[in-house]
Amino acid sequence: MGPVGMIVSAVLGVKILNAIGDHNLEEKRKEEEREWEKKRLKEEAERKKKLEEYEKERIRAEEIEKQRRDTPCEFNDGFTKEEFIEIAGNCAKKIRRIKMCVVDDLVVICKVTSQSGISDWFFSLDFRDFGHFTGRCWMWSENEESAIPDRLKESICSSVSDLKCQREA
Question: Which CATH number applies to 81-168?
Answer without folding.
Answer: 3.30.310
